[in-house]
């Protein structure tokens, strides 16, 4: 007969071994799921102050993006976007960052930089936070802090490359993000916008709307598969009719 091991004092649902009631108050259990909006807002405020993300000044009408903060960034990492074609308005190539807050191993950023170089145009970058989207996705405050800290590091990394990062005002709703990106692209004079594809349903709808708005404004869009080894849907059965649903046929088709 197997021995029953006595539970330790203080384990959930147990009284102390001596039978006396526990004097330590039990912490209230938090319901699984949504992080309250006020916690996310507090995380954003706290992190912005502690990480000295500073302020971003965006004068899109004049093609200028600059940053300044209390950590010694006095705006020297800003640029004024000037048209490389005499007599024209301000123009640039724009990189739209989302969850890919990095300067290395980014297909879209590499392509945007190459395009800007070949077209003799400056490269700029944009990010649009959406607190409403974070709440809908049950994003914890600690994750919000991570995103904001990553933005600060991204800004510094881009500045070292001569690329300004514009963090636009938070979109009031998920559906407003494409509008904010399109408006910024138009005002900044972007001729092409680059981004890395995100495959989730809501993100795919967001990107489709952004593409419609940008193309309606005469701005070319370039989206890149950056998260996967092979593009989703690229591996097919022998007759090409569908994606293999069993791993071994998928693997064999992939290796061919």
Strand and helix layout:
Elements: H1 37-50, E1 55-59, E2 64-68, E3 79-80, E4 92-97, H2 107-119, E5 123-127, H3 131-136, H4 141-160, E6 165-167, H5 177-188, E7 190-196, H6 201-216, E8 220-224, H7 247-255
Parallel strand pairs: 4-5, 4-7, 5-6, 7-8
Antiparallel strand pairs: 1-2, 2-3
Could you explain how this protein is built, in words?
By secondary structure, this protein is an alpha/beta fold. The protein contains seven helices and eight strands; from the N terminus they run αββββαβααβαβαβα. The chain has helices at 37-50, 107-119, 131-136, 141-160, 177-188, 201-216, 247-255; strands spanning 55-59, 64-68, 79-80, 92-97, 123-127, 165-167, 190-196, 220-224. Strands 6-5-4-7-8 form a five-stranded parallel beta sheet, with helices on both faces. The protein has a three-stranded antiparallel beta sheet with strand order 1-2-3, with no helix packed on it. β7, α6 and β8 (220-224) form a beta-alpha-beta unit. α1 runs parallel beside α4 (141-160) and α5 (177-188) runs parallel beside α6. The N and C termini lie far apart (56 Å).
